[in-house]
Design goal:
The chain is an alpha+beta fold. The chain has a single domain, classed as Gcn5-related N-acetyltransferase (GNAT) (Aminopeptidase). The chain is built from 6 helices and 8 strands. The protein has an 8-stranded mixed beta sheet with strand order 1-2-3-4-5-7-6-8, with helices on both faces. The radius of gyration is 16 Å and the shape is globular. It starts with 5 loop residues before the first strand and ends with a strand. The model has no long low-confidence stretch (mean pLDDT 87). This is N-acetyltransferase. InterPro entries: Acyl_CoA_acyltransferase, GNAT_dom.
Length: 190
């Protein structure tokens, strides 16, 4: 019998946020993480949502996103499959479920392969981009950004690439951080 997966929203209690943050620390570099209090505040104010990919018994992966009223889609801040479940097609399942949640599209950032630190890092970045492309997203050639000193590229599955620009992206971070830091720390990287 094949398992049925679905997305389950996280109830943002202190313990649930702490558990999720431990997953984030395991799956992402320190410089890629918002402080735990920033995420907790955004969950409480319903600016961001966290969902788990589950079958009702196990958690297989998670995503943290915010809804974007500008194009009625979502901006995915974090997406990961838990290490013991990787390479089983669950990443594609998580993207598919998120796509069902947001039929108008999704936007996410990936580390720019051109800024990789060595061959292994370059290969890892290309593998991630390839994964997203296989799951219906494409690189926005107009959006190369430097976000808090990290060179990033934007990927989406939107019908039009002019749905967002650097000022839109800066406002996303201002909203998350609760401070107008986007203009300072989010720059176009040409």
């Amino acid at each position: 019998m094949q398992k049925k997966y679905y997305l389950k929203k996280m109830n943002p209690t202190n313990i649930n946020v702490k558990v999720l943050y431990n997953y984030l620390k395991q799956d992402f570099e320190r410089q890629e993480l918002f402080p735990q209090f920033v995420l907790k505040r955004n969950f409480k104010k319903e600016r961001m949502e966290a969902v788990y990919l589950t079958d009702g018994q196990e958690k297989y992966g998670y995503a943290i996103y915010q809804e974007l009223s500008a194009f009625k889609g979502i901006f995915i801040s974090y997406l990961a499959i838990l290490p013991k479940y990787r390479s089983n097609g669950l990443g594609g399942e998580l993207i598919s479920q998120l796509n069902d949640l947001s039929p108008n599209g999704m936007l996410l950032e990936v580390e720019d392969p051109e800024a990789a630190k060595g061959k292994k890092d370059y290969t890892t970045r290309l593998r991630r981009i390839s994964f997203y492309e296989r799951n219906g997203l494409h690189m926005n050639s107009n959006m190369k950004v430097n976000s808090f000193f990290v060179p990033l590229r934007m990927m989406d599955n939107l019908d039009k690439t002019d749905a967002y620009d650097i000022s839109f992206y800066q406002r996303l971070y201002n909203r998350i951080l609760g401070l107008p830091l986007g203009r300072i720390f989010i720059k176009e990287n040409n």
